[in-house]
């Protein structure tokens, strides 16, 4: 929100500045008439100079206040956007929305900050000036003043029609440019995979198609812009001719005609300014639309509820989920995870295992059915409270460009050095700390680039152990670890389990074998569930999966 006092400090001098500009223009009529007639023009010259100088002073004050308002908008916008994005469901962030969000956070604030001084103020002046000049002309030539006032809606209508001609094309161009930008970023990130596959160039690729659409959008933008500019140009020329004819017919002397013609030209100038500003105004309109979409994004709500006594740690009741309509990921999944137990989610790739964990963490919300944690529907839980009770380790680990200590401490910011060291030791990070040149204070690089995949996973595990949450979600958390480290970490997790429930997505047989219960997913459905012994004895889908994994474990490269 804008400070009302600051807004008044902006509007009052803005209106005064427009009046001074109009006064300077209207003063040209008696000034030029006196100069051409050879009569005394010093008084009018002094008035003209005073109006110009005062106008400059007022414009400086308006610009200063405009920047203050702009910076206020920038700070408020960044705070509101960040607050909103932190409460938006992760499923809302499609590739396109991520790109729009990045644009809104990196450029929209700057555009809005500058728009007050560089767009809004000139636009307000350009709208007010013709009206003020038209009203002032009534004192010198009533007929010319009436023509000028009548011309205002005509020129504004022509300008609106001109902008309307390019608006649809401009929207198409903005959409095409956004898609092209997203695809180019994807291309840059996928260079290693593309080069390994021998793919070069953009022909026939998503980025190539996006660039083609962008080029076609540019041609449409130019094509639609020409008729709009022609329409406004014809309207401006017609108004100028009407003003000239009226000035000649109503003026009493040649000097007055010349003066009125010059004022008529100055009357047209603000509309030309508006026409020049129209592309920037259209861009600002797109910026506001992007910001509005982010500020209207759905948010996670809920309240602080303590887990119900005796309730399972996790319970899914007939849960359905789909990223896109008609393409279900989970279909009617029901399962229960008791406190103090470990449940392994097993199944082929694409079965919906990671999605199931995301629903428990409320990164996504179920399309149908209910996900309960601690006996409460997760949609009724305060997101911050819910996340405070979860320890999460995903296969795709994200580390910040900070020290090793800071990345582990993210699990519990108030933890002591001894607690951080204990969690790191449990995650088998002792050797890494000794090897790093700066020990605990070594920066791990962007996304942990200075560490190996296994080391990043161990940091993430240490972070979750430090948090010591009552519910632990592990998604292939030990996939990048060697057998010795995996056995040590899983053993430590079992030893520290107490009343904690663990849900783990795993492929390794050693990890699966430690689970109290195994849930076998296939094509988004629970096919089998039970203990390892029960599932192997039944000879069903899991038994076949287990046999194939056992056979694959003995493969060697020769």
Can you walk me through this structure?
This protein is of the alpha/beta class and 558 residues long. The chain has 3 domains: 292 residues, ABC transporter type 1, transmembrane domain (ABC transporter transmembrane region fold, Up-down Bundle); 154 residues, P-loop containing nucleotide triphosphate hydrolases (Rossmann fold); 79 residues, 3-Layer(aba) Sandwich (Rossmann fold), CATH 3.40.50. 64% of the residues lie in helices and 11% in strands. It has 17 helices and 10 strands. The strands form 2 sheets. It has a 6-stranded mixed beta sheet, sandwiched between helices. It has a 4-stranded antiparallel beta sheet with strand order 2-1-4-5. Strand 4 and strand 5 form a beta hairpin. Helix 1 packs across helix 3, helix 1 packs antiparallel against helix 7 and helix 6 packs antiparallel against helix 7. The radius of gyration is 35 Å and the shape is elongated. The chain starts with a helix and ends in a 5-residue tail after the last helix. The relative contact order is 0.08. This is ABC transporter ATP-binding protein. Pfam families: ABC_membrane (PF00664), ABC_tran (PF00005). It is a multi-pass membrane protein. One of its GO terms (molecular function) is ATP binding. Keywords: ATP-binding, Cell inner membrane, Cell membrane, Membrane, Nucleotide-binding, Transmembrane, Transmembrane helix, Transport.
């Amino acid at each position: 929100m804008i400070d009302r006092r600051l807004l008044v400090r902006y509007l009052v001098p803005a209106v005064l500045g427009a009046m001074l500009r109009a006064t300077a223009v209207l003063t040209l009529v008696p000034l030029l008439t006196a100069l051409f007639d050879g009569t005394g023009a010093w008084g009018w010259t002094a008035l003209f100079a005073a109006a110009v100088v005062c106008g400059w002073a007022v414009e400086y004050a308006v610009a200063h206040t405009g920047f203050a308002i702009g910076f206020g908008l920038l700070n408020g916008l960044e705070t509101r956007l960040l607050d909103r994005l932190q409460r938006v469901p992760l499923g809302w962030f499609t590739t396109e929305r991520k790109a729009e969000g990045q644009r809104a956070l990196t450029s929209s604030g700057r555009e809005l900050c500058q728009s007050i001084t560089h767009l809004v103020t000139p636009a307000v002046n350009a709208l007010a000036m013709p009206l003020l000049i038209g009203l002032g002309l009534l004192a010198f030539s009533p007929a010319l003043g009436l023509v000028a006032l009548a011309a205002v809606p005509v020129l504004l209508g022509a300008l609106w029609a001109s902008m309307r001609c390019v608006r649809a094309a401009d929207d198409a161009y903005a959409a095409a440019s956004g898609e092209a930008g997203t695809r180019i970023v994807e291309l840059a990130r996928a260079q290693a995979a593309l080069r390994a596959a021998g793919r070069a160039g953009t022909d026939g690729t998503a980025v190539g198609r996006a660039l083609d659409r962008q080029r076609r959008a540019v041609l449409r933008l130019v094509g639609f812009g020409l008729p709009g500019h022609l329409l406004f140009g014809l309207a401006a020329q017609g108004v100028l001719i009407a003003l000239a004819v009226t000035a000649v017919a109503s003026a009493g002397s040649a000097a007055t005609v010349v003066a009125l013609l010059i004022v008529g030209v100055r009357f047209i100038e603000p509309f030309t300014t508006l026409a020049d500003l129209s592309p920037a105004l259209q861009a600002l309109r797109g910026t506001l639309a992007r910001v509005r979409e982010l500020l209207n994004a759905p948010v996670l709500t809920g309240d602080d509820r303590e887990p119900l006594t005796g309730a399972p740690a996790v319970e899914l009741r007939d849960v359905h989920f789909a990223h896109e309509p008609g393409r279900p990921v989970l279909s009617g999944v029901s399962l229960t995870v008791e406190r103090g137990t470990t449940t392994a989610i097993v199944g082929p790739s694409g079965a919906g295992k990671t999605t199931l964990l995301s629903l428990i963490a409320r990164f996504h919300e179920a399309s149908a059915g209910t996900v309960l944690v601690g006996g409460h529907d997760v949609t009724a839980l305060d997101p911050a409270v819910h996340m405070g009770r979860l320890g999460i380790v995903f296969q795709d680990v994200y580390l910040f460009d900070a020290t090793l200590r800071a990345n582990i401490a993210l699990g519990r910011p108030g933890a002591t050095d001894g607690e951080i060291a204990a969690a790191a030791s449990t995650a088998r990070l002792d050797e890494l700390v000794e090897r790093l040149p700066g020990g605990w204070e070594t920066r791990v690089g962007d996304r942990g680039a200075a560490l190996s995949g296994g080391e990043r996973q161990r940091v993430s595990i240490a972070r979750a152990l430090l948090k010591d949450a009552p519910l632990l979600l592990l998604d292939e958390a030990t996939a990048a670890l060697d057998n010795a480290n995996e056995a040590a970490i899983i053993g430590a997790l079992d030893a520290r389990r107490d009343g904690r429930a663990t849900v783990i997505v795993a492929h390794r047989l050693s990890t699966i074998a430690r689970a109290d219960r195994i849930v076998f997913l296939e094509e988004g459905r629970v096919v089998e569930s039970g203990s390892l012994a029960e599932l192997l004895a039944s000879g069903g889908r899991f038994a076949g999966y287990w046999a194939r994994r056992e056979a694959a474990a003995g493969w060697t490269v020769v």
